[in-house]
Design goal:
Layout: E1 4-6, E2 8-9, E3 12-13, E4 17-22, E5 25-30, H1 40-54, E6 61-66, H2 77-85, H3 89-104, E7 110-114, E8 117-119, H4 124-127, E9 131-135, E10 139-141, H5 153-156, H6 162-171, E11 174-176, H7 177-184, E12 189-191, H8 197-209, H9 213-227, H10 231-245, H11 249-259
Parallel strand pairs: 5-6, 6-7, 7-9, 8-10, 9-12
Antiparallel strand pairs: 1-4, 2-3, 4-5, 10-11
């Protein structure tokens, strides 16, 4: 089967997230230089492509990856800061979680191929995947607390033990792909080099395709229900507590300090 490139979905021409399909394998590519911040266009296109995949019987497995120097650093902080000024702070977070939820609930198995940095909301993607493969040295982390943002805890909890996840969430520290794999089983496989990443992901996708599409779809739906991840409830809680945090001056200070590359001066106000 020849490769099919999807250039537009529902009248929207794709700009930052692209899709190709070949031999029943969809490859979703994040491309928003320089660091794949998940701005509004990225979030919208992830939602559109998830809906497209869910209605294409010819797609049996999906791989998500980046074709630039890093996987994804989460929400676009400048856009997030503007939402604070506009007093619409939860809209960015809510839309972002819509995309993360759509990926978790994708009707076909999702393989995330990760390299570089996978931070903040970017962690939601491999944490919600069925299988994740990462390059040695890839950094995972949830630095939201450093910006006075309540976020990331629900998704980190799927790939880390509770106290490790809490420590990382409170401190905003990072963990390597090797440590995540060897100590906690938070990624499926680690490869040595970037050149090995997509071949490993394609090999795994082909292995899954040999099982046929129907058992993959039904098994994924079954396992998602058995897991009782409660992703919608947990994400709604993070949005709610971010709304609480947004009432305080420390919230604006945290994001401002990050953008201005200085240490925040918190007052507890």
């Amino acid at each position: 089967m020849s490769e099919k490139k999807i250039e537009a979905v529902n009248g929207h021409t794709l700009q930052k997230v692209f899709l190709s399909v070949e031999d029943h394998i969809a490859v979703m590519t994040l491309h928003n230089p320089p660091v794949n911040a998940a701005d509004g266009v990225v979030q919208e296109e992830i939602l559109l492509l998830c809906d497209y995949i869910n209605h294409e019987d010819d797609i049996w497995v999906c791989i998500m990856h980046s074709d630039i120097k890093t996987f994804c650093v989460g929400v676009d902080i400048k856009r997030f800061y503007q939402s604070i000024l506009d007093k619409d702070v939860t809209n960015t977070q809510e839309v972002y979680y819509d995309g993360a939820q759509a990926l978790y609930e994708l009707r076909v198995p999702l393989i995330c191929a990760v390299h570089g940095h996978c931070l903040g909301g970017g962690v939601c993607y491999p944490a919600g995947a069925d299988i994740s493969i990462a390059v040695k040295g890839t950094l995972f982390g949830a630095p939201e607390a450093k910006l006075s943002v309540v976020g990331g805890s629900a998704h980190l909890a799927r790939i880390l033990p509770p106290q490790i996840q809490r420590d990382m969430s409170y401190c905003g520290t990072f963990i390597t792909a090797e440590e995540l794999h060897d100590k906690y089983g938070g990624v499926t496989m680690v490869v040595d080099t970037l050149e090995e990443l997509m071949p490993a992901a394609m090999d795994k996708a082909r292995e899954l395709c040999r099982r046929g599409p129907l058992v993959l779809r039904y098994l994924k739906a079954c396992m998602n229900e058995q897991e009782d991840f409660q992703i919608h409830r947990k994400d709604e809680l993070e949005v709610t507590y971010t709304r609480y945090m947004a009432r305080h001056a420390d919230f604006k200070e945290g994001v401002s300090a990050f953008l201005e590359k200085r240490e925040p001066q918190y007052t507890g106000q």
